[in-house]
Amino acid sequence: MIASPSTPRPQLEARTVRISHPFHPLFGQTFQLVDIHQAWGENRVIFQDPAGKLHSIMTAWTDVMPADPVVIISAGRSPFRLQDLIELAQLVADLKARVHDET
């Protein structure tokens, strides 16, 4: 028998999820955690609101995953993670190479 999507998996049943992204309209609110999975190329959590409606949100916008150490150490001084900066540097280098090749 397949469980209903709104039925929490046993290991998640007692867990809750808090919305931690400061600009999300549900910021600071806590909900029943239903599932954690990958969708649309990113990790997402499924949670249930008090009315029983299911919602999906990126795990990075919740307290489900531990905070990135760079974010903790920067103490709000940098909005970027190391991986974001590495990817940005590579993008800039690729764009410079493309412009150089075209001239």
Question: Could you explain how this protein is built, in words?
Answer:
The protein is α+β, with helices and mostly antiparallel strands. It has two domains: 1-65, SH3 type barrels, CATH 2.30.30; 66-103. 26% of the residues lie in helices and 24% in strands. It has two helices and four strands, in the order ββββαα. The chain has helices at residues 69-74, 82-102, and strands at 16-18, 30-39, 42-48, 54-58. It has a four-stranded antiparallel β-sheet, with no helix packed on it. A hairpin with a 5-residue loop joins β3 and β4. The protein is elongated.
Question: What's the structural blueprint in terms of helices and strands?
Answer:
Layout: E1 16-18, E2 30-39, E3 42-48, E4 54-58, H1 69-74, H2 82-102
Antiparallel strand pairs: 1-2, 2-3, 3-4
Overall structural class, as computed from helix and strand content, comes to alpha+beta
Instruction: Indicate the radius of gyration in whole angstroms.
Output: 19 Å
H-E order: EEEEHH
Assembly status: single chain
**Form type:** elongated
Please tell me the CATH architecture of the largest domain by its name.
Roll
Cα distance, first to last residue?
64 Å
Number of helices: 2
CATH fold assignment of the largest domain? SH3 type barrels
Largest sheet properties: 4 strands, antiparallel
> What is the average of the pLDDT values?
82
What is the CATH C-level name of the largest domain?
Answer: Mainly Beta
Our estimate of the beta-strand percent is 15-25%
- How many structural domains in the coordinates? 2
- Helix percent reads 25-40%
Strand order of the largest sheet: 1-2-3-4
Strand tally is 4
As residue ranges, the low-confidence spans are: 1-10
